[in-house]
Amino acid sequence: MQATLNQGLIDYLGASPSPFHATASLAQRLRSGGYERLDERESWQLQAGGRYYVTRNDSSIIAFQLGTQPMSEQGIRLVGAHTDSPCLRVKPHPDLHSQGFWQLGVEVYGGALLAPWFDRDLSLAGRLTYSRDGHIESQLIDFRQAIATIPNLAIHLNREANQGWAINAQKELPPILAQVASQDASDFRALLAEQLSREHDLVADVVLDFELGFYDTQPASQIGLNGEFIAGARLDNLLSCYAGLQALLAATPEQSCMLVCTDHEEVGSSSCCGADGPFLEQVLRRILPEEDALQRTINRSLLISADNAHAVHPNYPEKHDGNHGPKINAGPVIKVNSNQRYATSSETAGFFRHLCLTEEVPVQSFVTRSDMGCGSTIGPITASRIGVRTVDIGLPTFAMHSIRELAGSQDLAHLVKVLTAFYRSAELP
């Protein structure tokens, strides 16, 4: 099972170079698992025992199973994650020319570690909007092959490089696409039209706009002398999306279950499809239009907010609290913060810990050092918007927000096992 899950994760990462592709890949897997697509613009005819999913902005997805037990008595078991990852997004008018090179202007999306982006084989993927025969349409595109790179400046010309230097995102990050004889030979929108034709056999009248990000073409892989690690891009947080999907597909029909994977977490979640937007609440109200039943259900429900945790790094152990340094391959981590950067309470942490003990899954705790700031997740945002009890958890990783992150090859199976047990659990606290 562990090997199958790890290879499935590697395949999912490869199919998901952008939040749009990550969502489309989840949708395809849900359809194969018997889930029916819903359209927010249409009336929903939901049936007891039905399995459904709905997307918004092509980059967020909510999948749910309506159990045979009444939701107002049993609640809903929710797992939340996010589809986006830090990257370099292409600007609306990106064409740049310098010294005979064609480059693209980029904007940093999220809190990216920038140094690892240099000297990588980069490709481009995302969503393209265009007009065709008088109609406005959108399509996902993925160049797949390496079409760009950001070369480092040689050490001979930057003797202070190994002492650290501030990277200027405006000046130093534009990737090189090609050498061109003149500026007239480069037109990014024409390049996108060619890719649309090549990939989808569609001829656009005009490329209207796009949301595209660069990504590293090196595929994810299992590495280490004994295969202890999974290395790859976008483990934060497609690792949790994939684990939640596997658990949901294994859910038994008795309980009502939901997987919520939303976009824009890395930039605050404030959007129509982000966790700080109305997406989840609106879906819940369509499932339970009667207010009293909705409120009773929410107050009997529980959300597991699954987002990666910081593993204690052997070169930087001082960055962790001495009693709260999660280890890779030692199980999922309960994340706690007294200032509500995480939404965990003693009740929800106790439930998750008990679930892990029952399933013989190792479990760890993380609290940031008292003299350091703490990141946050969709957990507090969803808890405050919906009023649902929440526990923040995640798998320990290295190099979070790098172009290539590292997780444990044993931990995915641990997380899938406990999330599957959660979806099947007869009682919530």
Automatic annotation (TrEMBL):
<keyword id="KW-0378">Hydrolase</keyword>
<dbReference type="GO" id="GO:0006508">
    <property type="term" value="P:proteolysis"/>
</dbReference>
<dbReference type="GO" id="GO:0005737">
    <property type="term" value="C:cytoplasm"/>
</dbReference>
<dbReference type="GO" id="GO:0008237">
    <property type="term" value="F:metallopeptidase activity"/>
</dbReference>
<dbReference type="Pfam" id="PF02127">
    <property type="entry name" value="Peptidase_M18"/>
</dbReference>
<dbReference type="InterPro" id="IPR001948">
    <property type="entry name" value="Peptidase_M18"/>
</dbReference>
<keyword id="KW-0482">Metalloprotease</keyword>
<feature type="binding site">
    <location>
        <position position="156"/>
    </location>
    <ligand>
        <name>Zn(2+)</name>
    </ligand>
</feature>
<dbReference type="InterPro" id="IPR023358">
    <property type="entry name" value="Peptidase_M18_dom2"/>
</dbReference>
<keyword id="KW-0479">Metal-binding</keyword>
<feature type="binding site">
    <location>
        <position position="82"/>
    </location>
    <ligand>
        <name>Zn(2+)</name>
    </ligand>
</feature>
<dbReference type="GO" id="GO:0004177">
    <property type="term" value="F:aminopeptidase activity"/>
</dbReference>
<keyword id="KW-0862">Zinc</keyword>
<keyword id="KW-0031">Aminopeptidase</keyword>
<feature type="binding site">
    <location>
        <position position="401"/>
    </location>
    <ligand>
        <name>Zn(2+)</name>
    </ligand>
</feature>
<dbReference type="InterPro" id="IPR022984">
    <property type="entry name" value="M18_aminopeptidase_2"/>
</dbReference>
<comment type="similarity">
    <text>Belongs to the peptidase M18 family.</text>
</comment>
<protein>
    <recommendedName>
        <fullName>Probable M18 family aminopeptidase 2</fullName>
        <ecNumber>3.4.11.-</ecNumber>
    </recommendedName>
</protein>
<keyword id="KW-0645">Protease</keyword>
<dbReference type="GO" id="GO:0008270">
    <property type="term" value="F:zinc ion binding"/>
</dbReference>
